[in-house]
Amino acid sequence: MASVRFTVTPTKAEDLPGGSDLSPDISLRSGSRVRFESDSANRSDPLSEVSGGVTTTSAGGGADSPDHSSIDQGEGNSKTSSVYINSNHQVDDDDFYDKNLALFEEEMDTRPKVSSLLSRLVNYTNLTQGAKEHEEAESIGEKKKPSKSPQMGTLMGVYLPCLQNIFGVILFLRLTWVVGTAGVLQAFCIVLMCCCCTMLTAISMSAIATNGVVPAGGSYFMISRSLGPEFGGAVGLCFYLGTTFAGAMYILGAVEILLMYIAPRAAIFEGEGAAMLNNMRIYGSIFLLFMALLVFVGVKYVNKLASVFLACVIISILSIYVGALVSAFSVPDFPVCMLGNRTINAHDVVDNHCSKTVMVEKTTHLWKLFCHNAQLNTTCDEYFTSNNFSEIKGIPGLTSGAISENLWSTYLHKGDVLEKRSLHTSQVAHPASDRYPYVFADITTSFTVLVGIFFPSVTGIMAGSNRSGDLKDAQRSIPIGTILAILTTSLVYLSNVVLFGACIEGVVLRDKFGDSVKGNLVVGTLAWPSPWVIVIGSFFSTCGAGLQSLTGAPRLLQAIAKDNIIPFLRVFGHGKANGEPTWALLLTALIAELGVLIASLDMVAPILTMFFLMCYLFVNLACALQTLLRTPNWRPRFSYYHWSLSFLGMTFCLALMFISSWYYAIVAMVIAGMIYKYIEYQGAEKEWGDGIRGLSLSAARYALLRLEEGPPHTKNWRPQLLVLLKLDEDAHVKSPRLLTFASQLKAGKGLTIVGTVVPGNYLQSYGEALAAEQTLKHLMDKERVKGFCQCIVAQKPRDGISHMIQSSGLGGMKPNTVVMGWPHAWRQSEDPQSWKTFINTVRVTTAAHLALLVPKNISLFPSNSEPCTEGYIDVWWIVHDGGMLMLLPFLLRQHKVWRKCSMRIFTVAQMEDNSIQMKKDLLTFTYQLRIDAEVEVVEMHDSDISAYTYERTLMMEQRCQMLRQMRLSKSDRDREVGVESLQRGFVWCEKCPQVCVGLIRSLKLYAILEWPSQSPDLNPIEIYRAASSGGGSSEHHRRIQMTWTKEKTTQYRATHSGCSTPEGFRDMLSIRPDHSNVRRMHTAVKLNEVIVNRSHDARIVLLNMPGPPRNTEGDENYMEFLEVLTEGLERVLLVRGGGSEVITIYS
């Protein structure tokens, strides 16, 4: 929907030129104002102020248009005077900054000078993305420092932050296990797939990030501004949840390193399995509380520690490479005890005795674990008895050829023993029991499981774009830094896959927690000079990554909340006085606690994998859409992108989602879909120039061009409504129920255009048109009508309506049905334009071949909150109109208001018709139309024209002629020659007031009652007005039904025959009704009698609307015929077809 923005720049009295003496810095009171002044030494004149452009204030007939009538001498240079129109005071030439733009001075408030525009753009400062602005506000009472221009380059601003965010817990805790389980080849494929996914996403992200400034929110901002608030909010929340669960994963990784490798004795619960999970929950909650408090106290401490954490990561990775090179010359001593081909838990190998006996007859600790006792003649495990212990090197070295054995995958089920396939075993025994000291697999593994666990190790590519406000040249640094970081990390991951497979024994690689190497971190066994380098480095880097997640996630949520697209998140947009997102941090900590309570890194990793993949998917989609739609504003500086790469990245993301965990993928999509629909129906409407809107425009253009190929088939016909509403002087809709009725017809799901005509000139009435449009939009929202508004400004309402009917719609989406109200109290109206406009609209719709719906007594129609519990919808099918009368009740009954009403169809049979056969045919027709309705044929016998019909026609024609002579406006009476005849009428009415009043009242369809003899001197206009308003006492002026007879007419004429009337009024009394009018009145009266008799209890009556007369002189008679036709009916819908078939019996 199009939106109108009003910008109001308040100007104080002291700000006006000449109003008061201004201080030199008066224009600095508002940060949004731009101050323009001359370079001249003399600055005595008031300063000009603009807001969002140059605003010229015209006060007192051009108070700010200077008249340069003098020559100022300064520094030896003469300044010629310049004369301006409507100038009444003098200003120096140097202070009149737009002296060369006088031609445009009246537009300066909406169209600023180029110099002022460029000045504001250059001085634009974007909020920093990390926490720089919060750091400066940490110290309360400290004087606020002026903001410095961003100075960070590619290395410090993008490359290193991306490295720190990408390298994480998975590299140190799970990559060796992935290589050992999947094999070098499949592990290489897993890493390559994930890295390709992030590389393609980085290319798309670089294109979006270099297409303009990316403020706070990073990826959320890019997606929301590219795909709209619905997608942006849904994916933004998914990205927030992913970042939050990433914090939980890093905390669990840190706790695992602490309890497994640094301080195993710190475990509260002894044992494995459930006890270990409880330890993880307790310590994880403690870690989370400590980190959340640290973030709450001050983000500056987190940012200062970031460099330390990054150093830990780099040192740890370097130690791996050095250790791999050293292993080629000096093999580290990490023996692995094997029983046959089964791996023994090194924690149970006491004193390094990997054997059954010591000194021939002394049994070892392992003997006691496999046998009933320590005696040599005791019963032992069958596999233990038939196999011997042996030791193999856990780190055989780079040149050992171990990679040949580690090439292939070894996927295990939960509880399987880690086995070395190349070692000889005497027999295939029964499955090993968990009471023996073997190393077991803790989870069932597969290729898809490993993908889901590994993918979080390649996330973090958004770190550079999130810091765009800190960068000196963001459009250059973001693509280079991000892509270089991904290339670096991909090279590290892929090389580590090969190094791990070449240097480490396969059973050790598959040993997730290092039980076979005495509880050492597996990757630490390869590190040089000591495993503690990796252990300590990975612990601190993991803690740092957790802190970064707990710092970034609340700010992301705050950015979403401040956009105000999700109502229930508004509270999280607030925080401390310095802008710190306190409430968002609290929610983030609570959600992260849920991840901590899962207590398994392998279970948490796939969850955040889904959320990150969904975010990356939509980044690729945004880039592809913008590229394919060729939006004029799509001009990224990064040119190495293509829509096919974006689609390939999107395909990668979608495939990885379902490969890693199809049920998690479905859950993530359902969550995103629910958020999308919530924002769509409840969130605030935003117009961000997004790609989805561009896609909608392209789809709409394509569909409209397709619709132009030909008229719609009858089966596709649906009412495309043009609802004509009238506004009063206060811009309020006179008949809002008309729009309610239109909403009840919308079961056809067609187009709805709500239009109104604003009288006046467009240049002067533009503001009124905007106000009218806003009124219509508000009413449409209230009635829940989906459609468009159209306001036309015209001098005459009838011309405006004609223009609207001609111009509404576009292509094949043009209205085919006009809905307008009945002119209420048209008889009593002194201005005939209302009903004349009504008849003119009927003629225009007929000429345009549009259907017409006229609800009569619209105020009595039910609202959407007043459903009809029972009753009938009666259709009086008198002439064929293309099936409109059949289709409309069906559409009405689709709405809850009319759903419980039954449908009855009445048709009229003449004397020559076979009513029985007509009923059979009508039943067959309704059956073939699949419409459930009762059918009845009403026989109308020929009858003589009654006296009532004759007299009513007479009164109608007399009324028309009387009003033509008397209903003139004040200005017309002063101009027209007919004033003399009107004065003669005054004299006549003074002589015979009873006749005049009686005639006027009869023409107003009041009963002829005796006028009080006390008022014989009233002039005809006063008499007319009194009769119109029912003047006089209620005792003498009761409105009753006329029952004329010949005797009463003769008596009336005899009573008043003595009056000498002027010629015009004598002709009026002696008039004889036109025969065609008598016949039409007869038809209207007879039909009305039948309709009222049969449908007096109907909820609504639908009947054919007769066409207007070809001769415009009979327009008022036409209105009278319609009044007679619908008299006595509560709710009537007059229907006039558009000349085309709208319903068919064929499928």
UniProtKB/TrEMBL annotation:
Checking Pfam families in the record gives: AA_permease, SLC12
Per UniProt, the keywords (alphabetical) are: Cell membrane, Chloride, Glycoprotein, Ion transport, Membrane, Phosphoprotein, Potassium, Potassium transport, Symport, Transmembrane, Transmembrane helix, Transport
State one molecular function term (GO): potassium:chloride symporter activity
InterPro entries the UniProt entry points to: AA-permease/SLC12A_dom (IPR004841), KCL_cotranspt (IPR000076), SLC12_C (IPR018491), SLC12A_fam (IPR004842)
Q: Which residues form the SLC12A transporter C-terminal domain?
A: 736-853, 869-939, 1078-1147
| Native source species | Astatotilapia calliptera (Eastern happy)
Q: Does the record bear Ion transport in its keywords? A: yes
The answer to whether the entry has keyword Lipid biosynthesis is no
**What PANTHER family does the entry give?**
SOLUTE CARRIER FAMILY 12 MEMBER 6 (PTHR11827:SF66), SOLUTE CARRIER FAMILY 12, CATION COTRANSPORTERS (PTHR11827)
Q: Where are the transmembrane segments?
A: 231-262, 282-301, 308-331, 443-463, 484-509, 529-547, 607-628, 640-657
Q: What subcellular locations does the record give?
A: Cell membrane
Report the protein name in the record: Solute carrier family 12 member 6
| Protein topology in the membrane | Multi-pass membrane protein
Q: Spell out the reaction equation it catalyses.
A: K(+)(in) + chloride(in) = K(+)(out) + chloride(out)
Q: Where is this region: Disordered?
A: 1-83, 130-149
Q: Which family, according to UniProt?
A: Belongs to the SLC12A transporter family. K/Cl co-transporter subfamily.
What's the encoding gene here?
Answer: SLC12A6
The residues covered by the Amino acid permease/ SLC12A domain are: 158-327, 438-722
One example of a Gene Ontology biological process annotation: chloride ion homeostasis
By its UniProt entry, which NCBIfam families does this protein fall under?
Answer: 2a30 (TIGR00930)
| Primary residence | membrane
Q: What GO terms fall under cellular component here? A: plasma membrane; synapse
Q: Compositional bias (Polar residues) at which positions? A: 1-10, 71-83
Residue ranges, compositional bias (Basic and acidic residues): 131-144
